């Protein structure tokens, strides 16, 4: 962001925000004190410092420096709002389970994704929307999607990987997971509509954590325009799907839109979703379903390039599964259950490089934690890296060790320590879908190809999600048979 924009923002918002922030820093009579720390400059606060650290691959250090200076609870200002940073397992548990906190996204994210998404709703509305999404993502439904996912993976590897000397992993993984999720969410086959939607979503992601200034030259404006375009497409798909359901040309299991519409229009249904709610939550599901999974698989490829022992163990696991199947026979739900080591590798990758660096909540009322006041209306921010890289929780935390997860998920760590999928009532509703998508893709990838990293410098940045240097170009070798 250039200096002229910063000065303009400060001049516009200074009088109002200075009043609000100054008033907010005064403890209320008879209550606990505010946490230590500074709110910084109006509007800007510590936002630019955090964003710079994320882009320099120093966000974990940035958070830890605050913890070292102020302790596990401190105040700051992020994205124009007074904020309390909470760290540690007890803080994570408080954030995930406290009824006094509601999920809070940066204003930029709210504007881009809509006001009626699962990310914004609380109470009965949140429960209603989550229940509708969970219906689509329950095991009985997911079993039906394994074949569709595998079909997209096979076609993608045939068209974009096979026969290539080099490929760039991150953009290819993003396109693969986008194709998978757009097929399952909307029933969108390959073609111009899917391509246009993919282009829109590339721009949507650019402004998710941007300063929400709606001016022609800002990234935020470009993201808003892309969001509006994507929403028009999804609204049109919703109306078409509704008509197909009425004509008997689609069923509840056809895709997410059909599932949500079927729930809404079933006789005696208690889950009523408006078109706005279907569009808003489809936007969220599309981002959550393709962006995080693509990051996970990209960083698995990145790690496996330099860890031959882990790669060999994965190849052995998948070869064992394949040898018991006929040539070209599709994967089944039972096959996925045998990929235990691969999923432990995925979980360890998520521990070291969580796609979501952290998340926000909003205090619905004055609330105390660890003897400090969190005033009503303030943001609460937690970061996954604090517990993921705590040597008291994960021994030798910088070491890649899938055996940490040998006993079901994060059972070897205290509750609310491994938080790659969040926790509590808002734990990622698509966690099982992400597992299926990852296992199917890695099954075919490790059996068909060998690879080496092209870049000697093995680094990544966050903007706001992690991206390896240059998108992770690799030298690719096709195995003779698969």
From TrEMBL:
InterPro entries, sorted: Cyt_P450, Cyt_P450_CS, Cyt_P450_E_grp-I, Cyt_P450_sf
Annotated residues for binding of heme: 428
Signal peptide: 1-24
Highest taxon, organism lineage: Eukaryota
One Gene Ontology term of the molecular function aspect: monooxygenase activity
Record keywords, A-Z: Heme, Iron, Metal-binding, Monooxygenase, Oxidoreductase, Signal
GO BP annotations, alphabetical order: sterol metabolic process
Cofactor(s) named in the record: heme
CDD domains, per database record: CYP90-like (cd11043)
Record-given protein name: Uncharacterized protein
Organism for this UniProt entry: Panicum virgatum
Lineage: Eukaryota, Viridiplantae, Streptophyta, Embryophyta, Tracheophyta
């Amino acid at each position: 962001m250039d200096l002229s924009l910063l000065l303009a923002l400060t001049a516009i918002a200074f009088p109002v925000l200075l009043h609000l922030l100054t008033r907010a820093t005064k403890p209320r009579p008879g209550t606990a004190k505010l946490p230590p720390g500074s709110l910084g400059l109006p509007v800007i606060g510590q936002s630019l410092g955090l964003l710079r650290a994320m882009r320099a691959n120093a966000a974990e250090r940035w958070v830890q420096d605050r913890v070292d200076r102020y302790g596990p609870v401190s105040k700051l200002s992020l994205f124009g709002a007074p904020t309390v940073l909470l760290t540690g397992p007890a803080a994570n548990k408080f954030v995930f389970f406290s009824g006094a906190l509601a999920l809070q996204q940066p204003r930029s994210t709210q504007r881009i994704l809509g006001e009626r998404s699962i990310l914004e709703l609380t109470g009965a509305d949140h429960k209603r929307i989550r229940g509708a999404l969970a219906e689509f993502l329950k095991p009985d439904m997911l079993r039906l999607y394994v074949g569709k996912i595998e079909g997209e993976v096979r076609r993608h590897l045939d068209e974009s990987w096979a026969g290539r000397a080099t490929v760039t992993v991150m953009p290819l993984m993003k396109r693969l997971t986008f194709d998978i999720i757009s097929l399952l969410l909307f029933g969108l086959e390959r073609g111009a509509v899917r391509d246009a939607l993919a282009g829109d979503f590339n721009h949507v992601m650019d402004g998710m954590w941007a300063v929400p200034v709606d001016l022609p030259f800002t990234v935020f404006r470009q993201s808003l325009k892309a969001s509006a375009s994507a929403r028009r497409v999804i609204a049109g798909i919703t109306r078409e799907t509704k008509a197909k359901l009425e004509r008997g040309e689609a069923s509840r299991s056809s895709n997410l839109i059909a599932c949500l519409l079927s729930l809404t229009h079933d006789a005696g249904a208690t889950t009523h979703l408006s078109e706005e709610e279907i569009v808003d939550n489809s936007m969220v599901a599309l981002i959550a379903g393709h962006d995080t999974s693509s990051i996970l698989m990209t960083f698995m490829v990145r790690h496996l390039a330099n860890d031959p022992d882990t790669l060999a163990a994965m190849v052995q696991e998948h070869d064992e599964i394949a040898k018991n199947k006929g040539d070209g026979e599709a994967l089944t739900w039972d096959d996925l259950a045998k990929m235990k080591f691969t999923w432990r590798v995925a979980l360890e990758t998520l521990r070291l490089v969580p796609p979501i660096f952290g998340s926000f909540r909003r205090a619905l009322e004055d609330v105390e934690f660890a003897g400090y006041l969190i005033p009503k209306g303030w943001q609460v921010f937690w970061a996954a890296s604090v517990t993921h890289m705590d040597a008291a929780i994960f021994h030798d935390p910088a070491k890649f060790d899938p055996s940490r997860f040998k006993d079901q998920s994060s059972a070897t760590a205290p509750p609310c320590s491994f938080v790659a999928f969040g926790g509590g009532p808002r734990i990622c509703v698509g966690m099982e879908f992400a597992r299926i998508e990852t296992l199917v893709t890695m099954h075919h990838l490790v059996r068909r190809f060998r690879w080496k990293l092209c870049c000697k410098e093995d680094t990544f940045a966050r903007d706001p999600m992690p991206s390896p240097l240059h998108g992770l170009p690799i030298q690719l070798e096709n195995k003779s048979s698969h």
